[in-house]
Design a protein that fits this description.
alpha+beta
């Protein structure tokens, strides 16, 4: 009887250990996302939608009033876009709130509102998420051709 109890107790601890590992994995991506604010670095086009940027957007394609913004994520699923030195609309607030959540097994992020360089919210694929880089892509049409736009951010 003692052996059965010991086996059951050890099995229970093993299961609890597995659950904790899954939680740690989920919190790792959240931790990377929320550790510091993100600043725009560059944007490009992924013609074949394979996750690799095929060409940079031509200079002037994105207005400075969009690329100088700073994006801050919080672990509770909210965040803010802070206007940089240049505002597209002088009457706009300095900070605009948004909400976010991971999707597709943490390979994508859903946004509400206009968060990434003036694009409407929705789902963005995570191309890269590391201590220093965040790259997101979203399917769109550019000059009549279906492509993925890639936005790159850094700390």
């Amino acid at each position: 009887m003692k052996n059965k109890f010991l086996v059951l107790a050890l099995s229970g601890f093993a299961l609890l250990g597995c659950e904790k590992d899954d939680d740690d994995k989920e919190s790792e991506k959240t931790g990377l996302l929320v550790q510091q604010s993100w600043k725009f670095q560059s944007a490009g086009i992924d013609m074949d939608k394979d996750g690799d940027e095929d060409a940079q957007l031509p200079p002037g394609t994105l207005q400075t009033c969009l690329t100088d913004n700073v994006i801050t994520f919080t672990a509770n699923g909210s965040g803010t876009v802070a206007e940089g030195a240049t505002k597209c609309d002088p009457a706009a607030p300095d900070n605009t709130p948004f909400t976010w959540s991971f999707a597709s097994n943490e390979t994508a992020i859903n946004f509400t509102g206009s968060v990434i360089a003036g694009t409407e919210g929705g789902q963005f694929r995570i191309v890269t998420l590391s201590n220093t880089q965040l790259s997101l892509s979203k399917d769109t049409t550019y000059m009549g051709v279906p492509v993925a736009m890639v936005a790159n951010f850094t700390h």
